[in-house]
Design a protein that fits this description.
The complex is a heterodimer of chains A (about 190) and B (about 240). By secondary structure, chain A is mainly α. In chain A, about 75% of the residues lie in helices and about 0% in strands. The chains are: A mainly alpha (about 190), B mainly alpha (about 240). At the A-B interface, helix 2, helix 3, helix 5, helix 7 and helix 8 of A face helix 1 and helix 2 of B.
Chain lengths: ~190, ~240
């Protein structure tokens, strides 16, 4: 089985099978980032495919100085961010958050293993729905940054590379996003 | 409190993770590769502009030919092509010689020359307007043009003789290298300016007419004497 570097060289030469292997290698993380930024599967699926298409067409410009995944991840995040900024997407996070949160993990079968009772479950679902709603109210820049830091658990330096902003800006955005989330969740609770 | 927020955020976004169908990641690579073929690559704006500019240059060249035909007579002071016989050298110098204003798409340097001594004809109206040749007359005649049987002889009252227009003279000297040339223009141009093309907005008497009729094969862009080039700002530097 070819390694990533070899597949990269072949994909640059137009070998689509090699590029397909690269997609298979990174698709879960790219999809997860798109999903957490956009908030629903349909938009995340579209953004994921679009990100890979853009990456394939930009392969000739990938000089190999940066890690391929960081480069690919940057394309994916920017694709999702553009979709979010277009205003057509991202609203789904708030509108669907309640429904999705009602599953408490997304898998209905997991509900049977949940030790909490129905009342607690409803309370938790309401809490998570409020969190999703609060996230949806963040600006795209703050939302992407807090997702990359908290959910994807990327270091600030890598986030700075992906978003092409200074590390100080990354730190400020994360703090600002947390502050706004606390503020909104606190206001909701009260 | 920060940990609380982060924990809530993780739990909330984790509720989204299982939205993907079971076989989603099995088919994603194939669907992505299929999308490579389905979605056309976007042509960069700059390249698109370049293509447009090339097309525009083609239009400009085509319009140049028309421009040459329609404005050439007005460039001659006193409309000498009408009032005076035009020699071969004069004609060649006018259409293709050094310093000529033949457009890039014109048939400059053609072998079309003026006929022999043409009958002197006075321009019925302002020479600059009256002698404009309608573009439809530019097409090469399929048969030789007869020499003028009746020279225009009523320069003072050209309106009364529209039924007897000056026929174009024969054009005996043709260049074998460039057979597609308009016939000698001076003879054609003496046709009474009956249409709005000849004298836009005016009748022969100078009375205003209705809206000028656009020539059928007028240049698609630009007007008389205007360069129909595309927007200069779109041209690549």
């Amino acid at each position: 089985m070819a390694d990533e570097g070899e597949d990269l060289d072949r994909a640059r030469g137009g070998d689509r099978a090699a590029f397909g292997r690269l997609v298979r290698l990174h698709q879960r993380r790219v999809y997860a980032a798109s999903l957490h930024i956009l908030g629903n599967h349909s938009d995340a699926d579209d953004a994921t495919q679009e990100a890979f298409v853009r990456a394939y067409r930009a392969l000739a410009r990938f000089d190999g100085r940066a890690d391929f995944f960081t480069w690919l991840y940057r394309i994916a995040v920017n694709t999702a961010l553009n979709a979010l900024r277009s205003g057509k997407r991202g609203k789904a996070l708030a509108s669907r958050g309640g429904d999705e949160a009602a599953h408490l993990g997304g898998r209905p079968e997991a509900l049977g293993e949940d030790p909490v009772g129905p009342r607690e479950r409803v309370a938790q679902a309401g809490e998570l729905a409020r969190v999703l709603d609060a996230v949806a109210q963040l600006s795209p820049a703050l939302r992407v940054t807090i997702v990359l830091a908290t959910i994807e658990e990327l270091p600030h330096k890598q986030i700075a590379e992906i978003l092409e902003i200074p590390e100080g800006t990354v730190a400020w955005r994360i703090n600002e996003a947390r502050r706004l989330l606390k503020l909104r969740l606190g206001a909701t609770r009260s | 409190m920060t940990d609380d927020v982060d924990d809530l955020l993780r739990r909330a976004l984790a509720t989204l993770d299982d939205q993907a169908p079971a076989s989603y990641f099995e088919t994603l690579p194939d669907r992505t590769l299929a999308r490579l073929d389905a979605v056309p690559a976007v042509v960069p704006l700059r390249r698109a502009r370049r293509v447009f500019a090339v097309v525009g240059l083609g239009l400009a060249a085509a319009a140049g030919a028309t421009l040459w035909v329609t404005t050439r007579p007005s460039d001659r002071p006193g409309s000498q092509g009408i009032t005076q016989p035009v020699t071969v050298d004069e004609q060649r110098a006018a259409v293709g010689g050094p310093g000529g204003d033949a457009g890039p798409g014109s048939a400059a340097g053609s072998g079309v020359v003026a006929p022999g001594p043409a009958p002197p004809i006075e321009p019925p109206l302002d020479a600059g307007e009256a002698v404009r040749t309608p573009p439809e007359r530019v097409a090469p005649p399929s048969k030789p043009v007869k020499p003028p049987a009746n020279p225009v002889k009523s320069p003072a009252n050209p309106v009364k003789s529209p039924a007897n227009p000056v026929k174009p003279p024969a054009n005996p000297v043709k260049s074998p290298a460039q057979p597609i040339k308009p016939p000698a223009r001076p003879v054609k141009q003496v046709k009474p300016p009956r249409t709005s093309i000849d004298s836009p907005g005016k009748s022969i008497e100078g009375k205003p007419l209705g809206k000028p009729r656009a020539p059928d094969d007028a240049a698609p862009v630009g007007g008389q004497g205007q360069e129909p080039a595309p927007d200069a700002t779109d041209r690549p530097q």
